Amino acid sequence: MSTVHETRENTVVVIGAAPLRPEDVVAVARHGARVEVAPESLERVATTRALVEGLADDPEPHYGISTGFGALATTFIAPDRRVQLQASLIRSHAAGTGPEVEREVVRALILLRLQTLATGHTGVRPVVVETYAAMLNAGITPIVREYGSLGCSGDLAPLSHVALAAMGEGEVRTAEGALVPAADALAAASLHPLVLREKEGLALINGTDGMLGMLLLAIHDLSMLLDTADVAAGMSVEAQLGTDAVFAADLQALRPQLGQAASAANLRAVLADSPIVASHRDPSVCTRVQDAYSLRCSPQVHGAARDTVDHARLIASRELAAAVDNPVITDDGRVQSNGNFHGAPVAYVLDFLAIAVADVASISERRTDRALDPARSNGLPPFLAHEVGVDSGLMIAQYAAAGIVSELKRLAVPASVDSIPSSAMQEDHVSMGWAAARKLRRAIDGLSRVLAIEVLTAARALDLRAPLQPGPATGAVRDLVRGAGVDGPGTDRFLSPEMEDVAALVKSGAVADAGLGHART
């Protein structure tokens, strides 16, 4: 495991002692944890750098050291032009376009490239490693653009924008968010711009770091959102007078899917000791044979998504242990070309997660819709409106959820099957993993909003079941929503701010915490 220790100022993640853990990446990328490079790592880096410098003096060409790149790999570069070669590589490849990429994604990108540099398999000088670590600690975030990576030969354009900033060129955001020239930010942090030497330009841009960083952030967020989905489903089951009998452990054991069992256990916990559920257990009170699929099959759908996240976590853990570069310095001192920069392993699971996200949102929206339909809600007023006809209640909140779900279905179309050749057909098959990661981030935001609309709806429905009271867990979520300034049933009011407030509770993990009673990490 990687080394993490606490200082009075902040959490510190030590790079190079062992592979990073997913939580290390989240800590640095999202929460600003500091990094340190292990001394033994810098020693490895210095040793392999000596090998590269020996090859630089060799009259025989070596890719990335004394040759051009990609389709120009057969072009020999004289020693006096190699500094220009490395700088030209970064400048030409820093060709991203579109909106700025989020700060947490760029920080994850830098951190993961730093980890690979610190393995000693890339052949860079120690100063390169130290500069990347210092940029993270100074809060310098290079401007990276949305479009430019094909997810093969690494996330070339995004990583080039980072390398360009390390050279003192281009623009960055400071720790306070100000947009400044990279040279000014480096100077303010007492850092000298890098002058890249043989092999270093390639080493800085040949990695799956962007797509991997977004995958790790997605896994972190989805782990919490799937707990939230269980909480929201429990509230809907309770509010719609559904049964918890179908979530019994012995029934789940008949189909030994791990994720399903975990979600069913959450639903049992959420519905435990509910007066509303208890009110209709007697068959003489409730004559319905079984609930609709969106209620009854919640553990099966949420559980399948959990298993998908677990598979993605396995792939991400393997990628975290990788040293992705081309060429790479092997343990026995060879400088060897390879194809490890191809993003297929990461791209596939990013696409797989987008499918799971769309389906979890889809079943959530169906539960919301049932609560608003008097033909299916078991006694609730149409659209949960105060005065039916005069008030529309939550009618259009469901429209919003439906619109998001429709978009999530489009975002579930895989990017990884859509290879486009590049570099004069030298790079003739690419992963599109960066694109898969970008659409997954949008999908996760959509899922959080669909779940928020279900929580908002179920909270109002629970209030409308008075004098019956919700259970301790669902009641805690209802109280959380009310405590955020979202009022209960009543005449129509401006609904959008309330939807945003509940979405913020969902994204923060507060709904999952309130419903399941333990902290999220």
Tell me about this structure.
Belongs to the PAL/histidase family. It is found in: Cytoplasm. Keywords: Histidine metabolism, Lyase. Its main location: cytoplasm. It comes from Microbacterium salsuginis. By secondary structure, the chain is mostly helical. It has two domains: 3-207, Fumarase C, Chain B, domain 1, CATH 1.10.275; 215-516, Fumarase C, Chain A, domain 2, CATH 1.20.200. Helix content is 54%, strand content 6%. It is built from 20 helices and ten strands. It has helices at residues 22-31, 39-56, 82-93, 103-117, 126-137, 156-166, 182-188, 200-205, 209-239, 249-253, 258-271, 275-278, 293-296, 298-320, 344-372, 395-411, 433-463, 472-483, 496-508, 510-516, and strands spanning 3-6, 11-15, 34-37, 97-100, 141-142, 145-147, 171-173, 179-181, 328-329, 335-336. The strands form four sheets. A three-stranded mixed beta sheet has the order 1-2-3. A three-stranded antiparallel beta sheet has the order 5-7-8. Strands 4-6 form a two-stranded antiparallel sheet. β1 and β2 (11-15) form a beta hairpin. α9 packs parallel to α15 (344-372), α9 (209-239) packs across α20 (510-516) and α11 (258-271) crosses α14 (298-320).
